[in-house]
């Protein structure tokens, strides 16, 4: 059976999950070393540092190859079938891995390097294209279909997490080598932490935080170190910006005295140089490290040295004197998008809904807050919004999510509340909705239900809020219950137990939260 250390059920539903422990029986090389294939350069280097002399690591994609568009040849697949393991970054980067993995032998272990990491939503040009559709449909993001930014490694902070993830998975696959892998990883993480410290020391409180780049591959770096990436193109190097977008950028660069426009050496610099020439500024290289040429590797370049070069390049911008009237391109968009999901709608658009919109089996997210699964979400919120620390966010959501009702099952007109294995089930009727206005000026709709069972007690009155204002099958919801009255429940705005489908893992829920 093919062993896998990744939980993306949608992507790899056809593959069996990793057996609990055990060695792979496939040792293709007669020297007894593990044979590990990797996809892109960062994964290649991270893996080499982890395994040391215990394995031979190969790089699948040739230098200069675009990972998104790569299609392995029959020969490449044959070579992969001789490997003990294939380590890839994630399906948002190597979109071809699902089909390739399905054609591999059962004893080739497939490892996802970002397993357990929460990703940021991908935005091709830094703008939200879903807002208009939301406003028209009267619903929020409930289709669970998102594109995520794969470029985690460009942030040393995230590189440390990725190395730890690969290490944990390899230790589980090859327990006889676990101590070696961990010792190697610890030594490498020490180097990465020093790099992380250098970025933090240099970029924290930078006088300039906006940087313009041809390839929007640096969002994680920007988020983790307090910068703001302004992209010419999109997440992929070959994405072409519109003429309107280029005009906006030219105007922004002129108004804000931007001195450098960054491009990546391995791709065409046409866009960056065209914009730079138009506005009369310089260009500099910012390397997203998707691949390195063999010449660069032979010359001693590696992840850390290139990231040190990137830091020096960024300092060309971040050390410039601050402009008193500097206004980030995102200043206008930092205000909450006026979407239905965020609480901006017309009264006339609000429609009645039935309990069928909430049908299903649901789990509380509170246990995932308690065990730390949601900590990455709080870290992102703190860095993206800057209004509270991650610890303060966790305290806020602890108050909101706290509940002793572990599961809720909704079928027909019945709601079943399960507390510590004990079930209480009652029938409900719909009694209308109420529109609430919050302190920030946005609004929400509570859908009210009342039990017809005289013994319902604390569950007699129930209200749902799910950021939708018209009939739609919900993807998650906040729920309020009590035995006093609907009016008293409407006064509760600090405590909102939250439920997601029972078949979602904690990390899937955390990832879904980042999409809102």
UniProtKB/TrEMBL annotation:
Residue ranges constituting the ZinT domain according to the UniProt record: 337-516
SUPFAM superfamilies per UniProt: Helical backbone' metal receptor, Lipocalins
Gene3D superfamilies with a match to the protein in the record: 2.40.128.20, Nitrogenase molybdenum iron protein domain (3.40.50.1980)
Membrane-spanning segments: none
GO MF, one example: zinc ion binding
InterPro entries: AdhesinB (IPR006129), Bact_metal-bind_prot9 (IPR050492), Calycin (IPR012674), Lipoprotein_PsaA-like (IPR006128), ZinT_dom (IPR015304), ZnuA-like (IPR006127)
Biased composition (Basic and acidic residues): 139-149
Signal peptide location: 1-19
Entry superkingdom: Bacteria
Sorted UniProt keywords: Ion transport, Signal, Transport, Zinc, Zinc transport
BP-aspect Gene Ontology terms: cell adhesion; zinc ion transport
Region named Disordered: 121-152
Similarity section: Belongs to the bacterial solute-binding protein 9 family.
PANTHER family tied to this protein: HIGH-AFFINITY ZINC UPTAKE SYSTEM PROTEIN ZNUA, HIGH-AFFINITY ZINC UPTAKE SYSTEM PROTEIN ZNUA-RELATED
Protein name, entry field: Zinc ABC transporter substrate-binding protein AdcA
Annotated organism of origin: Aerococcus agrisoli
